[in-house]
UniProtKB/TrEMBL annotation:
It comes from Oryzias sinensis. It comes from the Eukaryota. Belongs to the isocitrate and isopropylmalate dehydrogenases family. Keywords: Mitochondrion, Transit peptide, Tricarboxylic acid cycle. This is Isocitrate dehydrogenase [NAD] subunit, mitochondrial. It is found in: Mitochondrion. One of its GO terms (cellular component) is mitochondrion. GO terms for biological process: isocitrate metabolic process; tricarboxylic acid cycle. It holds the Pfam family Iso_dh. Residues 23-343 form the Isopropylmalate dehydrogenase-like domain. InterPro entries: IsoCit/isopropylmalate_DH_CS, Isocitrate_DH_NAD, IsoPropMal-DH-like_dom.
Length: 357
C-alpha cells in the first residue's frame, strides 16, 4: 500500500486497480445529506473511483417517501448489497404511522448491527487525543420497536422489546468484531438495575456469549455511568455493545469527544447487506444551502465502503487525502467547498504520482 507525503510522489507501487465497476445504492436523505453526497460524487470523480451510484430520493419531510419508493430502494439493495446513505429525517408529528421509513429500511434489510469507530483525527483540537474506541449498537428492536398506544385517554404506553436471539446476535457480532480487529475488551452497556427483565436479558445474553471468547476481556457498565466515564476517561473503553436507544445516545456523545457529528463515520450490517453513513445521524437542516456542512464523516464512510468492496487502494487514497487535509489545519469551517477542493487536489496528486500494476 502507498502513503503519499504532502507534495511528494510515493516510491512504492499501489495496489492493483480494479477493472470492474461496482454498483452502489445511494440514498441522499434529508437536510445536508444531498450536499454530502455531492461531495462524495465529486471526490470519487476526482479519484477515478470505479463505482457507479444508483440514486434514490427517500424523504418523509419532502413528501418523497412511499411504500413504492421504498420497494425500489430495497430492490436496488438486493442487487447491489451495498449502500451509502444520508439521514432520512423523521417528522415528530404523528400521522397514523409509527414506524419511520428509516426504521422500515433497517428492518426490511435486517440491519441489526450499527458500528461507529470513534477515532481522533489529528488537526481537530479536542479535550481528549488519540481516542480509538468502537460502539456497536443493536438497531432492530429495543425502544425503537414502534409499539406505542394510548391505553386510556392521557396515558401512553411505549413497549421496549428485548429478545434473547437478537441480544445474543449483537453480542456475538461485537465479540467477533473484537477478535477480527485485534481488540482486547468488550463492554456491555445496560440499565439492568432498573429494567431488570429487559436489560437483564440483554446483560445475561452478553455474559453467556462472552464465555465463548475467553481471550477477550468482558465487562459491563450502567448507561448513566458509561456517559460520565466516556467524558472523564474514554481511554478505558475498547469495544462497547448496547441496545438501541443507548447506542443512539452514546454514538452522539462519543462523536462530540473527537470533533462532532461531522467527523465520525458509521456503518450498519445485516448478514447480507452493508449500509455506510455518518456515525451521528443528524439532518442538520439549518445548514442546507449554506455550504458549511462538514463532509469528513461521509467521505470517511465512503472510504470504508470502498474497503468493504475490496477496493483497498482507492479506500486508502480517499482516507489519506481527507486526513492530510485536516492535519494540515489550513481549512476551518465554515469552508466546506474549500475542504472538497483541497481533497480533490490531493487525489489529483495521488493519481499523477502513481502507476497501476
Amino acid at each position: 500500500q502507498m502513503l503519499l507525503s504532502p507534495g511528494l510522489c510515493g516510491s512504492e507501487s499501489p495496489l492493483a486497480r480494479a477493472d470492474a465497476i461496482f454498483k452502489v445504492t445511494m440514498i441522499p436523505g434529508d437536510g445536508v445529506g444531498p450536499e454530502l453526497m455531492t461531495a462524495v460524487k465529486d471526490v470519487f470523480k476526482a479519484g477515478d473511483i470505479p463505482v457507479e451510484f444508483e440514486e434514490f430520493h427517500l424523504s418523509e419531510v419532502q413528501h418523497m417517501a412511499s411504500e413504492d419508493k421504498l420497494d425500489h430502494v430495497l430492490s436496488s439493495m438486493k442487487n447491489n448489497k451495498v449502500a451509502i446513505k444520508g439521514k432520512i429525517h423523521t417528522p415528530m408529528e404523528y400521522k397514523g404511522e409509527l414506524a419511520s421509513y428509516e426504521m422500515k429500511l433497517r428492518r426490511k434489510l435486517d440491519l441489526f448491527a450499527n458500528v461507529v469507530h470513534v477515532n481522533s483525527l489529528p488537526g481537530y483540537s479536542t479535550r481528549h487525543n488519540n481516542l480509538d474506541l468502537v460502539i456497536i449498537r443493536e438497531q432492530t428492536e429495543g425502544e425503537y420497536s414502534s409499539l406505542e398506544h394510548e391505553s386510556v385517554p392521557g396515558v401512553i404506553e411505549c413497549l421496549k422489546i428485548i429478545t434473547r436471539d437478537k441480544s445474543r446476535r449483537i453480542a456475538k457480532f461485537a465479540f467477533d468484531y473484537a477478535t477480527k480487529k485485534g481488540r482486547s475488551k468488550v463492554t456491555a452497556v445496560h440499565k439492568a438495575n432498573i429494567m431488570k427483565l429487559a436489560d437483564g436479558l440483554f446483560l445475561q445474553s452478553c455474559a453467556e456469549v462472552a464465555q465463548l471468547y475467553p481471550k477477550i476481556k468482558y465487562e459491563n457498565i450502567i448507561i448513566d455511568n458509561c456517559c460520565m466515564q466516556l467524558v472523564q476517561n474514554p481511554y478505558q473503553f475498547d469495544v462497547l455493545v448496547m441496545p438501541n436507544l443507548y447506542g443512539n445516545i452514546i454514538d452522539n456523545l462519543a462523536a462530540g469527544l473527537v470533533g462532532g457529528a461531522g467527523v465520525v463515520p458509521g456503518e450498519s450490517y445485516s448478514a447480507e447487506y452493508a449500509v455506510f453513513e455518518t456515525g451521528a445521524r443528524h439532518p442538520f437542516a439549518q445548514a442546507v444551502g449554506r455550504n458549511i456542512a462538514n463532509p469528513t464523516a461521509m467521505l470517511l464512510s465512503s472510504a470504508n465502503m470502498l474497503k468493504h468492496l475490496n477496493l483497498e487502494y482507492h479506500s486508502q487514497m480517499i482516507s489519506d487525502a481527507v486526513k492530510r487535509v485536516i492535519k494540515q489545519g489550513k481549512v476551518l469551517l465554515p469552508q466546506h467547498a474549500t475542504i472538497i477542493a483541497r481533497i480533490r487536489n490531493r487525489l489529483s496528486l495521488s493519481l499523477s504520482c502513481s502507476s497501476y500494476k
